Amino acid sequence: MTYQSTFYQNPADFLDRTLETLAKDETKNNLILGLALRLKENPQAYGKLSPLMVSVNDESGELCAMGLMTPPYAMVVQSEPLNHEALEILAMDLQLEGWKLPGVNGEAEVSDAFARIWQAKTKQKAELIERLRAYELRKLEKIDYPAGKLRIAEEKDAQMACHMLNAMQDESVPGPRRELTVEGSLESIRKQQSFFWEVEGEIVASLLAKRPQIKGICISGVYTLPEHRRKGYARALVAEASKAMLARGYEFTNLFTDLDNPTSNKIYQEVGYRPVCDYHLYSFEG
Q1: In terms of domains, do 165 and 270 share one?
Q2: What is the mean pLDDT of residues 107-127?
Q3: 145 and 110, same structural domain?
């Protein structure tokens, strides 16, 4: 079997080739799908550096693997069913095209396979730095609520929203990351995708609904201020923000949790989130 890689300059062209495959399981593919759709909307949504978009087909034209990277983040890889030969070709052609990868992320089996291949080809050490679980919610479970209420962020809240997102990244995001800006927070606020949990007029927790897919949207950036933790605010905020997204017409919401954080995995399942698959994030060093 022979394989051929295609590199794309235009996100619309990448989606024309990959959307049918990615849409078969939006939650499993929510990261690469959401990124590609956002890039189609705004090619500079993730910065001025050109994104990497590549697909690998076999000789019959069947799509066997794909990758998308928005520097400085790891490349997101997809291959279903897992095709080792296609991943070998992907790694080889990335090297030939001069791409430097800070890491790889994706469904665990695929990410593991690509990390081994890249390490063997480049002699860079592939280090597993984060294990995530993708969840999906279609129906909310009844939960007990703490004091306070959901509030959609307003433009005057942009500084606070930005501060809380950066604080969340400082605490929980391994590897390279991009400092978030007030302008970026304003964009989310204007789309009514930024939410707070507020108690007696005080903001205690925040989150974003981002990376819309075809039928779903991702809940992300969940953060509770340190002095307000262990009071149920994050669980309530996720529940009410997810409810709001379903009310807007999304069929489901999805999110990622860190498998090393048993609390978040427990509380989101209490809200109604059900596990779909695991993701592994690797960094490449050396």
Answers
A1: yes
A2: 98
A3: no
